[in-house]
Design a protein that fits this description.
The complex is a heterodimer of chains A (310) and B (345). With 310 residues, chain A is mainly α. Chain A contains 14 helices and no strands. The two termini of chain A are 15 Å apart. Chain B is an alpha+beta fold. The chains are: A mainly alpha (310), B alpha+beta (345).
Chain lengths: 310, 345
């Protein structure tokens, strides 16, 4: 398989997954707004901070408010990580893969981008936002499903799954991190009933609430949620699960030793650590370490397999 | 420098026309990068789907094997004598007008479709493509990138489509290019005018299909004739890749004719002229009526260890009544073209 094609598939998958998870990221806070007392600061600014784009945001917007943040995250074409920009990049990469990906998936990718663009206004209003973000998530999952069901499963499919799972692991940490920057923790005396709401909201935004209750327990507790989202092997959006997926892809690829070593090291690091014991600040630093190592894996993959790495 | 088999043109796509006396002419030689064969193949598939009955009532010579003939021809050029030489199709990329064809042929032949940056030539002049396994040696390149852009080492240094060292590798005989660089010279209309003489000189034979009579404007007597009769002639620049316009004498205004007289006098080497042909027509659906429309025919000829003329071709039809007249079809549609085996009759 050509290195350029491998690289295009990998990035296409990352961009689709990024669009989906950015919708999930917004959902964390959107869900919370509904449950928290009216005057509480729900922390919209953390979304931008966790996306890693706060400097860009500050240079473009004067105020931090719900409307500006949503515009920035959903549609601002100056934000390279906005949902619409991610979907556009996905279609651009897909266009050079017409021979590789099944036609239906190619059409669905274009369809998702064009409908997301067409209906973008509905993402800005509280009333329609849920529906809009839901359509992004559903659209991205449709593509994932189509590719799983119809794409030829050679090295190209491994590239696709690696891109998807690295992006997913990265975004899962960012979604958790939104709530690690929690304003409520220090005030929990008053807000105990609401404290757990945040974690419910994190679980819901990762479609993990139902599975958590079935597998872990009915009560939503911070430490159990963290364990579930970082270490649960069988939950497809947990960090550890994503790493195992990346590992399994690498196992069938050539020249894989360097990359596998880094992945295995990160797997051990995640399993060994007891994230449930981490306090807020430590959690943030821990998440940063995970992201740093994900980046190392990406760099190794690029150096080993991509044309830009040779 | 000798290309494999001493063959300088592996793919040739001449345009044929027929005039009102029923005589066939070669209207144009395409040797640079002859294209549009994918339309011939697709047209046949569509026709078979729409009119299956017609196909079962006649013996129509097949063209489906073009892709495998092309593949075999490319294999025969391989510098390495190995079981499965590595063939690639080199494309300028998705924004090129014939990208569809590049990707179509690569798919049909089951070979990689590569861009310039997928390829790499090492110090030993060996050409590789970059794969996830590392560098994979390649033997034959079906070249759909203009030679002037194909190697930044010797040609246009600003080209983003090329491969550094490709010409070096080709010259060293480590990789074969089809077509080899330089074949575009033969697309020049002035060179075209000499082809019958070239055939006579090298083969001592007369061409089976004649060229259209062509006046070379650099020759004084021919130039004088062209200028005196410009309103009866079609005047073409010798190199149409430069994009200059064509004069259709019988339809041109007096101002246009004077302009071309000036152009010819200023740069006689750049122009040739031909009599205007009355091209043959085909019944064509225009709106909801059938009307006659003029046509030309592109053939596809492969030349490797043996020469193969495809038993079909691409008929190009001018949809616009007026766009026919420079002896070539400019804008139009294409039609499936049959060679019917009539048996012993």
């Amino acid at each position: 398989m050509l290195a350029r094609i491998a690289e295009n598939i990998y990035w296409m998958a990352r961009y689709i997954e990024r669009a989906e998870n950015t919708a999930r990221l917004i959902n964390v806070t959107t869900n919370l707004v509904l449950d928290l007392p009216r005057r509480t600061n729900v922390g919209w600014e953390y979304l931008v901070e966790r996306q890693g784009t706060e400097e860009l945001y500050d240079s473009l917007y004067e105020y931090i408010d719900e409307k500006s943040i949503l515009k920035f995250l959903i549609s601002d074409n100056k934000n390279p990580k906005s949902i619409l920009n991610s979907l556009q990049s996905a279609t651009e990469h897909a266009s050079s893969l017409r021979d590789i990906i099944p036609r239906e998936a190619w059409e669905q990718i274009n369809n998702l981008y064009s409908t997301a663009k067409l209906n973008v206004q509905s993402g800005f209003t509280r009333k329609n936002r849920h529906l809009y973000l839901h359509s992004i998530i559903l659209g991205a999952q449709t593509i994932t499903g189509q590719l799983a069901g119809t794409m030829y499963q050679d090295a190209g499919y491994d590239m696709l799954r690696m891109g998807r799972n690295l992006e997913r692991a990265d975004m899962t940490t960012r979604i958790i991190d939104v709530r690690s920057a929690d304003l409520l923790e220090d005030e929990h005396e008053d807000l105990t009933p609401f404290d757990n709401l945040q974690w419910v909201s994190v679980l819901k935004s990762l479609t993990g609430y139902q599975m958590y209750r079935r597998i872990v327990q009915v009560h939503v507790q911070r430490r159990e949620v963290l364990k579930f989202l970082f270490q649960e092997r069988k939950f497809p959006r947990s960090f550890y699960h994503s790493m195992c997926e990346v590992e399994s892809c690498l196992l069938s690829l050539p020249k894989n030793q360097d990359c596998i070593d880094i992945v295995n090291k990160l797997q051990r690091f995640v399993i060994k650590k007891s994230p449930e014991k981490l306090l807020q600040d430590e959690l943030h630093i821990y998440i940063y370490k995970l992201q740093f190592n994900l980046n190392k894996i990406h760099t190794c993959i690029a150096r080993t397999y991509f044309i830009s790495g040779t | 420098m000798t290309p494999p088999g001493n063959i300088w043109t592996n793919i040739y796509g001449p345009n044929l026309v027929r005039d009102n006396n029923g005589i066939l002419y070669i209207e144009e030689d395409n040797l640079r990068i002859p294209s549009d064969v994918s339309y011939m193949l697709e047209n046949r598939l569509v026709m078979q789907r729409v009119f299956p009955d017609l196909f079962s009532n006649y013996t129509i010579l097949p063209i489906e094997n073009y892709s495998s003939q092309l593949y075999d021809m490319l294999i025969s050029l391989s510098p390495r004598e190995i079981d499965k030489p590595e063939i690639v199709v080199l494309t300028p990329g998705i924004n090129h007008t014939t990208y569809f064809e590049h990707s179509y042929l690569a798919q049909q032949m089951g070979v990689e479709l590569v861009k310039g940056r997928d390829l790499y030539v090492d110090e030993d002049d060996i050409a590789y493509m970059r794969t996830i396994e590392g560098l994979t040696r390649i033997d034959v390149i079906y070249r759909c990138v203009d030679e002037s852009a194909a190697d930044t080492e010797v040609f246009d240094p600003d080209s983003t489509l090329g491969v550094v060292g490709l010409m070096r590798s080709w010259r060293a005989g480590k990789v074969a290019l089809a077509n080899p660089p330089g074949t575009g010279v033969a697309d020049n209309k002035l060179v075209y005018s000499y082809v019958p003489e070239i055939i006579k000189y090298y083969l001592d034979e007369d061409p089976l299909i004649n060229n259209i009579e062509t006046y070379r404007c650099f020759n004084k007597s021919e130039r004088d004739y062209v200028i005196a009769n410009i309103e009866k002639l079609v005047v073409k620049p010798v190199d149409d890749s430069s994009g200059s316009e064509v004069l259709i004498g019988p339809q041109a205004s007096r101002a246009q004719c004077s302009k071309f007289k000036r152009l010819i006098k200023h740069a006689p080497n750049n122009y040739i002229a031909q009599p205007m042909l009355n091209l043959s027509t085909i019944p064509t659906l225009v709106g909801n009526r059938v009307e006659p429309r003029q046509l030309d025919l592109r053939l596809f000829i492969l030349s490797g260890r043996k020469i193969q003329v495809t038993s079909g071709g691409l008929t190009r039809v001018a949809l616009n009544k007026e766009s026919i007249v420079d002896n070539a079809i400019q804008k139009g549609i294409s039609k499936d073209t049959w060679i019917v085996d009539m048996g012993d009759i």
